[in-house]
# Entry
Amino acid sequence: MADRKIVHVLISGTVQGVWFRAWTVQEAQARGLDGWVRNRRDGDVEAVFAGSGMQVDGMIGACHRGPPAAEVSTVDVTASTDDPGRGFRKLPTA
# Structure
């Protein structure tokens, strides 16, 4: 994909124990994104999204809201060159 965009995202706030990872998997798969999501031991959620710029930007926007029980305070996004492969999956806590 010529316009493939890859980003690393760190989401802070009330984002664990509120179905954020499962919601992220559903949202990312619906958008046709590749990548992964996982909880971090510090209470944040971390993800990598890869796909077209429009798909990735839409997912980043969705992360600012999250699932209904989440209270997102910050979403930090950095460009990445680490291709996550194909498909979107949930990884173990790191």
